[in-house]
């Protein structure tokens, strides 16, 4: 039985417990620090997802509900201007108070109220759908908690390991091959069963020419060839904005690679670079430059979704507890790793689908207001909960962002 088939009450309990399990290996000090403005301290994630239920569910559903702490409304509001003012994002790491213990008590208190609410037989459909949104929101923060801790630990000269994972031997790389797709007038977007975010709607028709898509993501070994061939020194391979960033930041390789290029930092500590595993933690600019160097391009999100509809919704997700992308299996001829392992950059700008309507009120700020200057990624990663992902799922990041588990799959015109 998948998580999505459970009662809302059971889903609530499991998702909330999964967040605590991810935070379990962390010390109070680990949870408090913010390593960069893009990342948030684990303690802030733990509190913010809880604030979401207080602000958008308990306050709406329970008459006369009193907030656990009025000041938390300011501290743990992320970006909802309609709700009120908020603490500045780059200063989340300065919040030594409330303590981690107080945040855990906050979670427990809100869970008590939520569990009472979830027992109600007459729970309004409107409230149930906000709870479902809150659970999907919490799963997004579970992934962010991991990617933010990874970045924090990478800044520590001790290079601490978040977790242990058994070493897996990779016998080799699945040969890169391309599969052809006919294209035409096609439909993309969420088909209407189960939960989706508003940005996956409405399902609509769109035209795409015939194309070819690679059978698996690009590996470390292939990306190393690009690095060795001087990919980071050749301006002809880069978008103008990308070249500015590469030059300014002095990028020579993916963010977590050792300068020796034979090791990479991971959630399980520093480990030998596996040439057969998917390359990860690339910015859009790096993915795009590699694709150009390889005589290919990144897929559009329409192309990606058409192919993903034919793939099985399984993969290396966070429940595997590998904490890192794994090499493709050598045996299967079909498309591999469409889901899990690494998010795949597409060349599509994060824009509203035709007919998109954001929700009324503050929750309309969830996705719609970010639909500019970001690119879409598809498929989930080794840090994504399995029940969170689907073929129509649209993730989005700034093109220079590279602290997510982001990689690439090549496409070509037919
Ligand atoms: Fe959030």
Global shape: globular
What does the average pLDDT come to?
96
Biggest sheet layout: 4 strands, mixed
Give the N-terminus to C-terminus distance in angstroms. Answer: 40 Å
What is the helical fraction, as a range of percent? 25-40%
Cofactors, ions and other ligands in the entry: fe (ii) ion
Instruction: Find the structural class using helix and strand composition.
Output: alpha+beta
Order of helices and strands: HHHHHHEEEEHHEEHHEEEEE
Please tell me the total number of domains.
2
CATH topology of the largest domain: paralog of FGE (formylglycine-generating enzyme)
At CATH level 2, the architecture of the largest domain is Alpha-Beta Complex
CATH class of the largest domain: Alpha Beta
Order of neighbouring strands in the sheet with most strands? 9-8-7-10
Question: Stretches where pLDDT falls below 50 for ≥5 residues?
Answer: none
Fraction of residues in β-strands: 5-15%
Question: How large, in whole angstroms, is the Cα Rg?
Answer: 21 Å
CATH superfamily annotation of the largest domain: paralog of FGE (formylglycine-generating enzyme)
